[in-house]
Amino acid sequence: HVLAEFHRVLAPGGQLLVGGHTGEGSYLKTEGYGGIPMKVLFTRRTNASLSGLLHDAGFAVDALIALDPDAPSSSGIVFARRPAGP
Predict the structure, then answer these.
(1) What band does 44 get if pLDDT is binned at 50, 70 and 90?
(2) 1-32: per-residue pLDDT in tens?
């Protein structure tokens, strides 16, 4: 739903940059930085699966970048755009 809303509000030709930790699976984080209590469900996705979700929402994916893919907690960046035209 979030990606569909991004697609809706971006002008034709508008660009989207999505980045974050990559991987598979979900986990519940109960403590933030400095020991602050929290309750947030994190879901990691591979760049390929995020690319598929963006495509399904109507975006054209221009680039997938893996940052330090061999690290225990790798990150990725996906560049996408809302195609110009109808």
Answers:
(1) confident
(2) 999 999 999 999 999 999 888 888 888 999 99
DSSP per-residue codes, 4-46: HHHHHHSPTT-EEEEEEEB-SEEEEEEE-GGG-EEEEEEEEB-
CA angle 8–12–13, rounded 5-degree value: 125
User: What is the spatial distance between Cα 48 and Cα 14, in angstroms, rounded to a whole number?
Assistant: 21
Whether this model's pTM surpasses 0.85: no
Residues in Cβ contact with 69 at an 8 Å cutoff, skipping those fewer than 6 apart: none
Instruction: For helices 2-9 and 47-56, give the axis angle rounded to 10 degrees.
Output: 60
Q: H/E element holding 72? A: none
Place of tokens 């979700």: 53
DSSP 84: S
